[in-house]
Give the backbone structure.
Amino acid sequence: MEQLSIALYWAALVTTGISALCYIGYAFGVRTAIGRMATNAGNVTMTAAVSQRMSESVAAVGVFAGRLATFLLTVSLAARWSAAGRPPYTNMWEFTVAFAWGISLAYVLFERRYRQRTLGAFVLPVAFGILLVASLFPDRVSPLIPALQNDNVLALHVGAMILSYSAFSVAFGATAMQLLQGAERRFARLPRASTLDQIAYRAVLAGFPLLALGLLLGAYWGNSAWGRYWGWDPKETSALVTWLIFAAYLHVRNLAGWKGKRSAWVVIVGFMAVIFTFYGVNLWISGLHSYAGV
């Protein structure tokens, strides 16, 4: 089952890459390229019809590949869980694959909810990049240290953190698209900046309570494992700072009326904090949470 998990990871890496390229082509490349070729050939009539069919076909491939990648990652994590006999969250390879799975799943849900396929051009490349990072870490199954030998809390605590970070990744993708689009709507295929601002806001609303739950479960686990609820460990502190950044985002957006670029940059900073919390603490800063290694 361990080798099956690894093989499915590589298959998901490839399909996520294909999906990301298709979404990018749908959002920016295919329709424009075909339109230029048809115009240069003097056949303006066929431009709209051909480019529309081609772009929709590319989008359909992107959707299928993205759904397939989510399925492959789901089975990969399930196989890993079976092989290890515990939740697949105890080393950097497992963390990273689970993070990419969460991003893919969150994107599927938001795409279905908002019917904005072009969002995949900004979210799926993040998932692909995360999967590439996973290839840098050892993929062997490693035993649990004593502090982690609580499968139920491990699954709930780390699962809540991963899902919250995944929702914030969708918010980041929507915000990056919003900043690129601008108030003047630079790209006709992309949604309006106001729509993207709303998607980012909804994604933060989904991730914010999950992060709070993850912090609370971590405090509970810390008391049972180390005899204290909170110790200002680097991982704990970084996760708390991330939560405070998104709390500030919700505050300035709802109470101070910040929308558009000002609130968008708060989301960008929050996502940078997510990446630092997820990787920086484990790789460069020693602490009680540096058990996973590389």
Observations:
- The chain has two domains: 1-142, 144-294.
- The two ends are 21 Å apart (CA to CA).
- The chain has a mean pLDDT of 86.
